[in-house]
Amino acid sequence: MTGLALIIVFVLLIILMIYMMSKLNVHAFLAMMVISLALGLIAGIPLVNTTIDGVARQGMNTIIATGFAGTIQSIGIVIILGAMIGMILELTGAAFKLADMVIRLVGAKRPVLGIQMMGWIVSLPVFCDSGFVILDPVRKALVKKTRVSSVSTSVALSLGLYASHVFIPPTPGPIAAANTLFEGAGMTVNLLAVMGMGVLASIPCLIGAYFFAVYI
């Protein structure tokens, strides 16, 4: 199967995966693995490496192993270390201390704003996925202390992290975009100007993200 039909099947399988995780409580890893195998079979990928008419075709065993190894190589160690740091923050009580600090800074009535701004600041030197792993224990402690919605704080933290991740260097995305724009205009990249413009561009996103987090 190829073309538009494969795209439609892909979208339907993604919806099925979300349903499995959210409604059937299937573990995320198992749900993703089942959907990946199903999509591979539908797309015509063999289960194991095969040779047809002298042409070697990689099987799903090789493709999945290669993809998993690539993920571990790129961000796996960061996620593992981030999870360890998060667990240390939680077990030592440091997460609650940080939650208290957030509450003192923004007030007990605005914990969603506090966790969003914490994400926005932390994502400047740290990649947003690692930042979420590290800050999630703080978010949980904040939820316990203020009884605010867990969904609201999760959305606020995620969007706060992404607001700086996609707009403000040193993350590679805005640097690459700025490099393309500046070179197109025959100019050299001014990193300080890019950072300043990134901060300004992220402010409307933060405002919209806050109201969406409160609404959702």
Summarize this entry quickly.
The chain is mainly alpha-helical. 78% of the residues lie in helices and 3% in strands.
Assess the beta-strand content as a share of residues. under 5%
Beginning-to-end CA distance, first to last residue: 38 Å
Helix content: over 70%
The 3D shape can be described as globular
Question: Describe the biggest sheet?
Answer: 2 strands, antiparallel
Please mark out the parts with pLDDT under 50 across 5 or more consecutive residues, or reply none. none
Number of helices: 9
What structural category do the secondary elements indicate?
Answer: mainly alpha
Count of β-strands: 2
Kindly report the spatial arrangement of strands forming the biggest sheet. 1-2
Nearest-integer average pLDDT: 80
Q: Write the H/E string, N to C.
A: HHEEHHHHHHH
Q: What is the CA-based Rg, rounded?
A: 22 Å
Task: Describe the overall structure.
The protein has 216 residues and is an all-alpha fold. The protein has a domain at 76-215. It is 78% helix and 3% strand. The chain is built from 9 helices and 2 strands. The protein has a two-stranded antiparallel sheet with strand order 1-2. Strand 1 (50-52) and strand 2 form a beta hairpin. Helix 5 runs parallel beside helix 7 (150-167). The longest helix is centred in the middle third of the chain and has 33 residues, at 60-92. It starts with a helix and ends with a helix. The model has no long low-confidence stretch (mean pLDDT 80).
